Amino acid sequence: MLTKGGQKAAAGTYWDVMNGSRVVLSAEGTLPGGPETLYLKASAAVMLAAGPVLGLIFAVFLPFVGIVMAISLGIRKISEGITEAAAAGTSLAWRPMEAYLAGSRKRKAAYGKDGEKNS
Predict the structure, then answer these.
(1) Which of 71, 67, 84, 14 is nearest to 42 (CA)?
(2) Strand 22-25, strand 2-4: pairing
(3) Contact 38, 2 (CB under 8 A)
(4) How far apart are CA 6 and CA 33, in angstroms?
(5) CA–CA separation, 111 vs 119, rounded Å?
(6) What is the pLDDT of residue 88?
(7) First CA to last CA across the chain, in angstroms?
(8) Under a CB-based contact definition with an 8 Å cutoff, are residues 32 and 8 in contact?
(9) Per-residue pLDDT reduced to its tens digit, 53-64
(10) pTM for this prediction
(11) 17-50 pLDDT, tens per residue?
(12) What is the DSSP track for 15-50?
């Protein structure tokens, strides 16, 4: 039923699966395209009948797609909230607005053991 491009095929109507273009072979010949191109052999009547069936399948499953999207959105929002709460609970000692350029040795030397500043 599926034939790749570049292969010999019997006479008939072939439909490109990817873009829906139609190729009519009046006699046995080679289908256009490379091996990545797939063709479905079906008459025009079959393809016209398949349209409403595919539309019905889409209409039946559309509510389920909406439900799955809503659930995934809820899970994403809950996980982002948990992540933000966990990040807010962590504290880093890094303070980018403060700079101690003198270093800790000079600071320790400037203060005595009793905590009073040496002169």
Answers:
(1) 14
(2) unpaired
(3) yes
(4) 6
(5) 9
(6) 77
(7) 96
(8) no
(9) 999 999 999 999
(10) 0.47
(11) 888 888 999 899 999 888 899 998 988 888 889 8
(12) EETTT--EEEESSSEEPSS-TT-EEEE--HHHHHHH
